[in-house]
Amino acid sequence: MSNRPVTARPVEELDSVVIRFVGDSGDGMQLTGTEFSKAIAKAGHGFATHPDYPSEIRAPTGTLYGVSGYQIQYSSGQVFTSGDAPDVLVAMNPAALKTNLPDVKHGGIVIVNSSAFTAGNLEKANYASNPLTDDSLQGYRVYPIDIAALTSNALADSGLSKKEVGMCKNYFSLGLMMCLYSRPVDKEITDIEKKFAKKPLIAAANIKALRTGYAYAEATEMFAVSYQMRESEVKPGKYRSISGNQATALGFVAASELSGVPLFIGSYPITPATEILQELSALKHYNVTSFQAEDEIAGICSTIGAAYGGALALTTTSGPGMALKAEALGLATILEIPMVIVNVQRAGPSTGIPTKTEQADLLQALYGRNGECPIPVIAANSPADCFDAALEACRIAVKYMTPVILLTEGSIGNATEPWLIPDVASLPKMEVKYRTDPKGFQPYARDENLARAWVRPGTPGMEHRIGGLEKDFLTGNISQDPLNHQRMCDTRAAKVAGIAKDFPPSKVEGPEQGELLVVGWGSTYGSIAQAWQKATADGKSVAFLHLRNINPLPSDLGKILGRYKKVLVPELNLGQLSKLLREQYLCDVIQLNKVQAKPFKVSEIYDRILELC
Amino acid sequence: MMNDMTTQKPIQNLTKKDFESGLDVRWCPGCGDYAVLSQITKLMPKLGIPRENFAFVSGIGCSSRFPYYVNTYGLHTIHGRAPAIASGLKLSRPELSVWVVTGDGDALAIGGNHFIHAIRRNIGLKIILLNNRIYGLTKGQYSPTSEMGKKTKTTPLGNIDRPFSPVALALGAGATFVARAIDGDQAMMAAILERAAAHEGTAFIEVLQNCVVFNDGAYDMLSDKATRDDTRLVLEHGKPLIFGKERNKGIRLRGMDTEVVTIGENGVTAADVLVHNESAAHSGLAFSLGQFESPEFPIPFGVFRAVDKPSYQQLNTQLVESTRAAKGRGDLAKLLNSGETWTIK
Question: Is position B157 within any domain?
Fold first, then answer.
């Protein structure tokens, strides 16, 4: 098969497109989406994805709450987000159409699996009449295709059961979309052969479904044009597609390999953080020990034990688990041992909406413990950025002998984007020294960074006892002396505040002073960056700063905030960073908050920028 | 905290004194914890383990002050979590001898989950539970081992909260080594601790320990020389379960149940008495012994169960070795470049 489908149809060149695949959670839309992104990646385009699935593993078929979706935006240039509104919606049933149509661009393409538009399914989706036959889809370019029937006809002789044939229709949709968007299917065929190597009948059926979908799109007169992305302007180099959780796992392995310190992960499975534990559990041939603990508390406690033993230790969790770990975080802080706690945030409070994203655990990360308990907090801003953020978290932890909280988000952890694979030699050095010299040793003596020494049990001549009770400034002996306690609290706070001296000058995009500065943190990076670009292109005087470190904040931040008349802080919470900036800098920030368990649309930020300048 | 730096001694020259931290011990005068501390520091130089390779981990409670008094590495942590913290330490450093000292509240109330899971995994920790059947550090509330009807500050009308048997709980969690000792019998405690130290998996020892302030005399019947022979049953592997001053009482199996019999009465002979088997295929009889309560039954002491099963850390090491043998030592560049890659020129 050639690189481009042979079709008589004209080819329209695109700069960027947003496609959303939606269906029942059993329809395989995550797979279709993932495979489509792989084909896009192969073509060298920039892309960003957003999987959006219900927390039920298999919700009842055809229901509105059982709809699972996968959105990808790809482009000839840099892509920051998975896109605001889909240009194309592929809907496998009425419920999927109903829940997703309002997001689709006016005049957008809607491809539907018409076989699923039965009276029963329409009723489950609360449709009074069939949208494919009434006038309700008039504002869209609708392509009803009998995907289920076309797939089952093609697979009549496959030797598979009706149920198994039904499961192949996602490959039909994939084939169809690959043809329409001018992607070759040969690589996908090899992948199917590999994926189903032990089930040759299924492999053959899926390949046939893929080819049938492709051939259908090629032959049908329904589509007036095919689409082809313009040649990409992506930075040269070797890429792979990576999710935030994968990148986080790789970042920790890299920190371990670079420092020569064994890695330990003690965690309890929790959505949407579980993949980090899974990824690391499969890497035991690296210097990795993984431990699935009995609960969240044991997750962090085993991590404390391993860190005390000299490992580069981490625990992974999400909001509810973070709440359970609070007491142990205090212990890690007073013990002054290095470790990283990764919180892949999800919508709360309580169980909240586990599979959906939010940034509402920022104040919990900063303050959610008893006593004066400062812990450095850093945030990742995109899937690939999780790799760098994990390395940075480890660097701070071992240099300053402190637990570090790394905040990522569900929308980062599960989303994928292309990652320019770094050269190992270019990665930052990470030097770790255990103290082995007993001469003059005091457990709480500090270096110039106020960090105490890391002493592994098993080191002769340095046996000592420490714990959660307040301790003497030097010896670490239990101390309830009032002035000593003041000194220890002040010192622990000063140690964390002092980390800011390592930060490079903050990078402000746009004018150095003026009307408006947009300040963000975490996953909102993509939406803000794109909104800022758009506003700048419109000739607006607007600057943009995205924070990596939230505790401590960069020391130049106060001055920067003072150089603009207005400061806008978009956050997926009710104003947590805003509160912090006001408190720290007496800066009257303007909040832009959203708690809909969804990322910002670029337009939501862009529109607010236009209102302000 | 550290005591004065002493020059390193060869292991064979270490004495009890080398394992004493020199810190003032702050348990109440007469507390049963002193006996345990004394037996442990006496045992440690005999084990052939360098002093620096011991780590004591504890939670919160009177018993949890223990690490401060032993001159090894020590970690005094948070309430109930010592087994989880010790598990992380043991797993990352299998060569260390890791001991957990806990109490009835620490291990069985707030830390119950970590306690049963450490035991289930058979991770190589020595867990010593000092059971005084009362909350001492918070001054006299009932604990998960306080007997029914007991009046305490939070049960002024008598306790209606049914107690655990720590031994039965540990056996129910699948323990591979379970023993019970008492503070008043130091010779027996020493023998049990020595066996626990040699056990590869989780070794669990319940020590009945008198709280002189809030529950004084709880174990008098078991400690007092005048009564103890009739109230205690000393377990010895391969020996019949016989007790009593006259050595004429025994434990017999009737159906699936155990009963106390008198040898020489009602046609009962020594041959009817059960023989203790600490390594039986199943822990059923040990579980039954673990539930014995006074005065209907004697209270068993000694090793209830000792079986060899691979420890968690051994299995983990094997996994690491086999995966390294199959895949080779991981290479970072290879990992970063794994999965599907593409090159943009």
Answer: yes
